[in-house]
Amino acid sequence: MGTKDKMPEGKPYVYDYSWDQWQEWVKENGESGFRAGQIFDWLYVKRISNFDEMTNLPKTLRDKLREQFDFVTLHEVAHYRSKDGTVKFLFELADKNAIETVVMKHNYGNSICVTTQVGCRIGCTFCASTLGGLKRNLTPGEIIAQVVKAQQLLDETGERVSSIVIMGIGEPFENYDAVMTFLRVMIHPKGLNIGQRHITVSTSGIVPNIYKFAEEETQINLAISIHAPNDALRSKLMPVNRRFPFADLIEACKFYVGKTGRRITFEYALMGGVNDQPEHAEELAQVLQSFPMAHVNLIPVNFVSERNFVRTPRNDIFTFQRILEKNKINATIRREQGSDIAAACGQLRAKHMESGAR
């Protein structure tokens, strides 16, 4: 494990453990199995913030928990609310690194976008998340704590988190084990009990872990950040393509669809004059013809001051969409949210880093 992959030192976080791990822990500590359910209930149903609040646990058990675990520290550095209801948090972790979490309001409920790494090493040329590179992976508990924080915010109005997108800062499939622990807690009926089909994991194309994810036997959605219709252009926009070439990525996606029978969403950020021409749409349609349920999510690129990309004109976005649909490829245009509060991944953290923070 490289230096940048190391988790923070010290005790594990109380959110780091899955249901199965808590069952093992209570057994190893001479406690009855039902205690695992009580701990889960305090953490994810009652959403308490210290061990003293676990009032139906014996004091000896609470003392053991306090000795062996910490609660995640998410210090709120900033909190912005958009005119469309989007709320963006900048949190400081125990080691003073900063992460972002976004809560989005839709007509079908509340969605939360979570971060999985401090920074990112993928290096996409149009993204703010990769500025400054990768600092470290988050623990499962640091990812879970973002959802708990969002739910505590929504508790004030009697609402709940209804869906999750793992599309914040970082590459989820480069922190695979922590992300899978996070997902198991999210979907567990005694955890936050969020429906699997209401969760989406997005990857830039870490091919080995696409194969691995296909074997997980979940109903969780998979999104692939594709952003180009061919190998040469994708390598210019996404250096990860040099590690996992376009053809290998498409083969992995075909395996996933064949294994799971589930649809993949292909995320495509439109950049003016770069990847948004009619010929790009035609080429993309040809690539995706072999995916009977392919869905393309067109994303007008966000302006990032450190990058040179410009937004595709509105009419050209619709032209791109029409070409895909003419070729029987389902395509939607992502609705912008939180543009007035820099809600795109990494923008707020980038500003924070400019001030000398981490």
Automatic annotation (TrEMBL):
The keyword Lyase does not apply. Residues 106-340 form the Radical SAM core domain. It catalyses: adenosine(37) in tRNA + 2 reduced [2Fe-2S]-[ferredoxin] + 2 S-adenosyl-L-methionine = 2-methyladenosine(37) in tRNA + 5'-deoxyadenosine + L-methionine + 2 oxidized [2Fe-2S]-[ferredoxin] + S-adenosyl-L-homocysteine; adenosine(2503) in 23S rRNA + 2 reduced [2Fe-2S]-[ferredoxin] + 2 S-adenosyl-L-methionine = 2-methyladenosine(2503) in 23S rRNA + 5'-deoxyadenosine + L-methionine + 2 oxidized [2Fe-2S]-[ferredoxin] + S-adenosyl-L-homocysteine. One of its GO terms (cellular component) is cytoplasm. Its cofactor is [4Fe-4S] cluster. Pfam families: Radical_SAM (PF04055), RlmN_N (PF21016). GO terms for molecular function: 4 iron, 4 sulfur cluster binding; metal ion binding; rRNA (adenine(2503)-C2-)-methyltransferase activity; rRNA binding; tRNA (adenine(37)-C2)-methyltransferase activity; tRNA binding. Its EC number is 2.1.1.192. Keywords: 4Fe-4S, Cytoplasm, Disulfide bond, Iron, Iron-sulfur, Metal-binding, Methyltransferase, rRNA processing, S-adenosyl-L-methionine, Transferase, tRNA processing. SUPFAM superfamilies: Radical SAM enzymes. The active site is at 100 (proton acceptor), 345 (s-methylcysteine intermediate). It is found in: Cytoplasm. Reaction proceeds by a ping-pong mechanism involving intermediate methylation of a conserved cysteine residue. This is Probable dual-specificity RNA methyltransferase RlmN. The gene is rlmN.
